[in-house]
Amino acid sequence: MAFSTQESDEVLSEMNITPLVDVMLVLLVVFIVAAPMLTNAIPINLPKTEAVAPANQKDPLIVSIDGSGKLFLDKDEIQPELLESNLRSAKEQNADLRVQLQADDQVDYGVVAKAMASIERAGITKLAIITAR
Fold this sequence. Notes:
The protein has helices at 18-38, 80-93, 109-121, and strands at 61-65, 71-73, 76-78, 98-103, 126-129. The protein is an alpha/beta fold. It has a domain at 61-129: Nucleotidyltransferase, domain 5. Strand 2 (71-73) and strand 3 form a beta hairpin. The chain is elongated. It starts with 17 loop residues before the first helix and ends with a strand. The model has no long low-confidence stretch (mean pLDDT 82).
């Protein structure tokens, strides 16, 4: 129902947006208050565990990256661009091939990420990343 100060009996066709603005401001306040609660802001101390013996496996293939970024397949140094093809040929010989990746802690993350991508592109799904205890 619209009120008009005009002398005629015509209905005023302007929309009253005050209730709409009130609702929108209430929703905005609700979202501003609720947004920080939606993030995982709960501090959790993860439990410490004892070292576990690795599962029995048949001769895993070890990919190593030393501190200077050199790549080794078992104990033989290889070029990074040859890693994928060598892993593909090893995968053809052994369908259940397991790979262990170990990298020096001083190595740039990009080198490790490229090695992991080569392992994935070679079709190897069983990858263990070796760390120190």
